[in-house]
Amino acid sequence: MLSSSRFIVAVHALSVLARFSGRGPVCSATVAESVHTNPVVIRRLMGELEKARLVRSVAGRSGGFELDRQADQITLADVYFAVEDENVFRMHKADPNSRCPVAAQLGKVLHGPLRAAECALHTSLAKTTLRDVSTAIV
Amino acid sequence: MLSSSRFIVAVHALSVLARFSGRGPVCSATVAESVHTNPVVIRRLMGELEKARLVRSVAGRSGGFELDRQADQITLADVYFAVEDENVFRMHKADPNSRCPVAAQLGKVLHGPLRAAECALHTSLAKTTLRDVSTAIV
DNA sequence: CGCCGATGTAACTGCAAGGGTTACCAAAAA
DNA sequence: TTTTTGGTAACCCTTGCAGTTACATCGGCG
């Protein structure tokens, strides 16, 4: 399965935005300080979240980032699939021409079950919204 | 999320064993040829599968590996959690002492939903057995 | 009994992905 | 026009995994 700490960092960053919601954009340096990382890392991540329409950026002086939807309209599933690789399971180099029937057909055989698993993951993550997360933080 | 191609390779290797089931152990070189990798890689992987009681090894001449259970008693979930990291979601460096409440509490708040998601993944993968996979291969 | 083919494992290399950092351009409020 | 911000490119460093070689050990089999 595909991983990095990006998902957790993204949720962290969005939670910071959620708590500042209504008080103007938050700059990358502020978010970076909370996450304990570098402003550029945050900007890169925000770029992906912006493509997914979860945040929008405000350029220029006193600019920054703010949520592009209400916090209860953003689920953990939205965040996960915005930021992590699209296919959760990484395949080994396939070889459809192999004489070995296992090597030749395994990819096709596994496709259904793996998609189902991704789907289950999505469904479970979709049950928690950013509002749930941010209201749980005092 | 945690990933490598190890899960797919493990399923591949186990499928090979399942097809040889009853005809004695299969050596790592044979499995490696099917998977298109190195025998040592297979032996390392088999070590993890052995800890999870999915395979057993036979030492000495004409040794190798064989399934330690019937193929319908091994699910994709067994394989996944035997071979991949135990925690599916990788945390960023936490900081419970941070002045920022998000940084201080996010880990705890996320714990429940993430466990639920792992659980959903497990349940979905558990629906497919190694027998399902190996009988789908002609 | 001793050979030989097998596992078990350590050690090293190579490679790719991510994160961290610096630097610089463009945008836009003050 | 100045200054603060995002956007992005370029680079280094670290980490983890795969691949490889090497070797000790085990245990049938001749």
Describe the fold and architecture.
The structure is a homodimer of 138-residue chains. Chain A is mainly α. Chain A has a domain of 89 residues: Arc Repressor Mutant, subunit A, CATH 1.10.10. Chain A is 54% helix and 6% strand. The first copy, chain A, contains six helices and two strands; from the N terminus they run H-H-H-E-E-H-H-H. In chain A, strands 1-2 form a two-stranded antiparallel ribbon. In chain A, a hairpin with a 5-residue loop joins strand 1 and strand 2. The model of chain A has no long low-confidence stretch (mean pLDDT 92). At the A-B interface, helix 1, helix 2 and helix 5 of A face helix 1, helix 2 and helix 5 of B. Chain A binds a DNA duplex (30 and 30 nucleotides) through helix 3.
